[in-house]
Amino acid sequence: MHYMIRSVLAAMLAMGPAVAFAAPAEPSEQTLKAEEGGPISPEDIVGLKDMREIAMSPDGQSILYTVTDQIATAGSQRQSIWLVPTDGRRPAKLLAGAKGISTSPQWGPHGQRIAFLSDRANPLVEDENTEFRFTTKVEGARAGKGEAKGTTQAWMMFADGGEAVPLTAMRTSVTKLAFAPDGRRLAFLAADPETPEEQADAEAGRDEVVYGEPGHFTRLWILDLETGDARRVSPDGLNISELAWSPDGSHIAVSTADNTDINTFFYGTGVALLDPQTGKLGGTLIAHSRGPISWSPDGSKLLSSVVGADNPIGSAVRVHDLASGKTLNLGDQYPGLFTHFTWAPDSRSILATTFEATRSKVVQIKLDGHVNSLAQLDGEAHDLALDASSQRIAVALSSPQRPSDIWTLTPSGETTAITRINPQVADWTIGDVREVSWTSTVDGRTIYGVLVTPPGYDGKAALPTVVQIHGGPEWAWWSGWLGSWHEWAQMLATHGYAVLLPNIRGSDGQGTEFARAVGSDWGGADYQDMMDGIDTLVADGTSDPERLGIGGWSYGGFMSAWSVTQTDRFKAAVIGAAPVDMAVLARTTDIPDFSAAYFGEAQEHLADLDAVSSVRLLDKVETPVLLLHGKADTRVPPDMSLQYYTGLTRLNKPVELVYYPGEGHSIQQRAHQIDVQERTLDFFETHLKP
Predict the structure, then answer these.
(1) Residue 55 CB partners (closer than 8 Å, separation 6+)
(2) Which InterPro entries match (predicted)?
(3) CB 54 within 8 A of CB 406
(4) pTM of the model as a whole
(5) Max Cα separation, the chain?
(6) What is the separation of C-alpha 308 from the centre of its chain, rounded to a whole number of angstroms?
(7) pLDDT category, 6, cuts 50, 70, 90?
(8) If you placed Cys at 282, which of 227, 273, 316, 397 could pair as Cys (CB 3.0 to 4.6 Å)?
């Protein structure tokens, strides 16, 4: 589904109808470990680290970045901050986060200080009598002893190391922060704490929830770093999700919404200017914004990505000129997806990463709308930074051979990796990753995808093949690293499988029109695009037509559940967090605007929604099915899988259902991530190999 986390198949041995809570599956037998040249195991995968968030120092000499100890895990309990010289001549060093979570590093304006967020033990919280130079002195803002244990607060340290000093002791977690240009103030976001009345209600068991009422608003605060005084500056009744200081410090651009629900966060925010002295908020300058806000270095313009007011599928680039009041629409017809942005120092153009077909690029977007390619990247870019002289660009990038590292680009387009966050992967024997394409029989479009084949595969034998469908539909597979709990092509390839990862219509990478091409047509032309890709691999001898499997998560789960109602060619299907009853989904998901973007309002399109609901066609299923679902999923409620399971069980068809307690739409806990992968491997080993 739209903006659903990148997702996975997970499988277990299908021994007939059964439902169970997730218990660890028995590991597959291996004679060699991955580092000894053997196949990649789930334990190998969860041992990988993930690199996120890069921030270049004002002088361009150093880069801050964060590392999480569990790849593709939003809720990892160990995140750390590292520093590496931009030239890569010295190894990276750990700055913060020997344990716990340290994240969101921000350089001070002069490059001497670093602010960051951390959940480490905070003296300002542990002991209310402790006095520090930096503290929030606002009545009701500073937590007393024990009140904010387990929260994330703002900290500061010098760039050359030393002890970190706590800056805040809010009752709730600080979620974002930014230095003022003068370095004397720090703006940050924190949600309102429970009121005394709410605390009393909770203690008395009065825990009823009135659905649809706003939760606790996230407010903008400003901390004076010299006096330690903090004050709330954002108005009542507004939720703030992004902030960016103007270069002269006179204003803060903020993303605002009038509600706190995730649907409004995705589809209903706007960019406005706030006066940090008075708290006065101006009118919306950029509507339907999504993601960070960026000021041009000269302070004349604001940059943000947006979703369309009439159709939120896809995203676009918007630049608002403060002097003229006009908003420039940039790159709307560009045949790719803009992913990360930074202004060029002269304020006349924007540097961006894009995703096109199956790879990333670095491009220059001119304010007249022209887009110039600067560098082709072999993989998926996660972040982008630029030094002040514009002589060096840094990207967070995965490649087919390794998970994300920091790579620098010279003006001539040469790339160099300056970190090695997962050195163990260099000893693994991994599958071959290559971009493939074919022609759709629907309308002659070129469809791109990624094919991963076993190490050393010579093309002489037809292989058991799994087609994995990505989430979304608006998302995509990339010619980069494909190994995590929900990106398991490398694991399967090292066990002898070909894995096809198709970017069928509805995907990112071929422009907004392509991404919108599945409106009211899920399971139609997109399904045929996928089948055409499989037919291409069968025709060229890569895939054994008698040993085909399918799987996916979210929209990938939808397509897997749908496909086995349309054909008996698949011998195994793993269906993760799948929307199988689209009318029910439209009224139970936490982002109802998502369904409306593709199908229109549910009441007016019930027949269309029913027509693409695989749960209506279970009598057609002849394929063994495994259903996997987080028990706390609010994006695709877990009863979706129960419907599919119960329907197949009543028809005496082979099906199993595994729930993961405490998990939402993505799987976060280490044991569950291992289990997902082990079941995936065991399921396909059982059904696709002789």
Answers:
(1) 63, 64, 65, 105, 106, 107, 385
(2) 6-blade_b-propeller_TolB-like (IPR011042), AB_hydrolase_fold (IPR029058), Peptidase_S9_cat (IPR001375), WD40/YVTN_repeat-like_dom_sf (IPR015943)
(3) yes
(4) 0.91
(5) 75
(6) 20
(7) very low
(8) 273
